[in-house]
Every structure is written in C-alpha cells, then in structure tokens.
Amino acid sequence: ERLFFLSGIAFALSIHFKLYPIIYALTFYNSLTLKRGWASLFDLNAARLRFVFGTALTLILLTGLFTYIYGFEFLEHSYLYHLSRKDTRHNFSVYFYMLYLTVEEEDIGISLLTFLPQVILLLGLTKKFGNWKDLSFCLFSQTFIFVAYNKVVTSQYFLWYVGLFPLILPKLQLSKSEAITSGLLWGFAQGSWLLPAYFLEFRGYNTFQFIWIESLAFFCANIGLLSKFIRKYRELCCTDPVCEVHKVR
C-alpha cells in the first residue's frame, strides 16, 4: 500500500517538470476503486487517500520551495503563462489563425475558452475508460485529445502520445493494411502542413491562411484516427470473455 503514496510523489514530480500530466489526475484517482459511476468519486479508500496525499504534499512542497527561490517569476513561467500563451509560429493547432489575428489583444477569455472542449472530452474519456483495466488506453486517448485540441501544438507534443502508443497497440489488433494506412494518413497530414509553413518561415510568403487550412486537415486526420482506435478497442473488449469491467457496463 506504500506504493500508492510513492506513486503520488512520482506523479507530482512529473507535473512539476512538465505540467500536462495533470490531465491524468482524475483518471488515476478514478482507477483506484472497483466501483463505477460518478458516485465512485466519493469512495475514499486507503489507496486513493495515499495517492492524493502523496501528490498534493509533493506539489505543495516543490511549488513552495521554488517560489521561495525564484519568486513570482516561477509561478508565471511554470503555470500562469499557459493560460495566456499565444504561439503564431510552428503551431499545428486549429486555433492557430485565430491566435494570429488576435495576437495583439490581451483577452484572456479567448484563451480560456479554448480549454473548454478539452475539459469536456477529457472528462468523458475518464468516465468511459477511467478504470484499472482500460487505464493505458485512457491515458493514450486523453493525451491524444489534449494535444489535438490544444491551442498550441508543436512537434514535440506528438511524443507525448507516441510514447504511450506501444502500450495499446496489441489491444487494437490492427491489420497490416490498417496500420500502414493510419501511418500514411498521419504522416501525410503533417507533411502537407509543413509545406506552407516552410514558405512562411524560410521564404517570407504570407501563407497563414494555407497553414490554417492544413491545420484543420491535420486535426480531422487526428480525430479520425482516434475514432478508429476507440472503435477497434471497444470491438476487442466486447468480444473478450474476460473483460469483466465491460460486462458490468
């Protein structure tokens, strides 16, 4: 049982070094019970209490320590900056063109509004797959959604879900043709975005609208791929005789 406290410490460290793992908080918490439904959130068992305490204590200590050392600048660049960040270069996001057109405006409401689709979808995935048996698939799907819907998407963000893909690949049972088609679709959608981006960055041409159109195409490709993965995963679970969690559902 001590491992749950240590897991909380490790989780807090990951949030401290890279903020995005915080999206897994409810999923990890939800997976530490056999009960189902929103009422299960109030099942305060020992595992949950240890995990939450380890996470909260470590985050408070780390945040307090580095705020003491670096002052408000630490809070600004580690946490608050992400609420108002606008990136009009190297950005695959569907919000790219909107951010470009409003780059001079200090309207934090626009930035906050972009988080709404992410929050709704992350909660939905937690409700559907946030249990111990589906944990790896839930983490992958949440990361994929978080990146696809984020207002800033750079190439390094793809590593966040690519690193989790090997955990779920055996559970998808993709045929060779499906795997090749999926890889080509993702690669082509990304490559087609890079062409107008090249002309903007290296040739100085005004290709902002073309980049935005390619961002929409890349977004659609990503959502199409995730929809396929979810469908394949659910098909496998529905035919798996030992998938007790899904039988209960």
From TrEMBL:
InterPro entries: PIG-M. It comes from the Eukaryota. Keywords: Endoplasmic reticulum, Glycosyltransferase, GPI-anchor biosynthesis, Membrane, Transferase, Transmembrane, Transmembrane helix. The keyword Hydrolase does not apply. Its main location: endoplasmic reticulum. One of its GO terms (cellular component) is endoplasmic reticulum membrane. It is found in: Endoplasmic reticulum membrane. Its EC number is 2.4.1.-. It is a multi-pass membrane protein. Pathway: Glycolipid biosynthesis; glycosylphosphatidylinositol-anchor biosynthesis. GO terms for molecular function: alpha-1,4-mannosyltransferase activity; GPI mannosyltransferase activity. The keyword DNA-binding does not apply. One of its GO terms (biological process) is GPI anchor biosynthetic process. The chain crosses the membrane at residues 6-29, 49-70, 108-125, 155-172, 205-226. Belongs to the PIGM family. Catalytic subunit of the glycosylphosphatidylinositol-mannosyltransferase I complex which catalyzes the transfer of the first mannose, via an alpha-1,4 bond from a dolichol-phosphate-mannose (Dol-P-Man) to the glucosaminyl acyl phosphatidylinositol (GlcN-(acyl)PI) intermediate to generate alpha-D-Man-(1->4)-alpha-D-GlcN-(1->6)-(1-radyl,2-acyl-sn-glycero-3-phospho)-2-acyl-inositol and participates in the sixth step of the glycosylphosphatidylinositol-anchor biosynthesis. PANTHER family: GPI MANNOSYLTRANSFERASE 1, PIG-M MANNOSYLTRANSFERASE. This is GPI alpha-1,4-mannosyltransferase I, catalytic subunit.
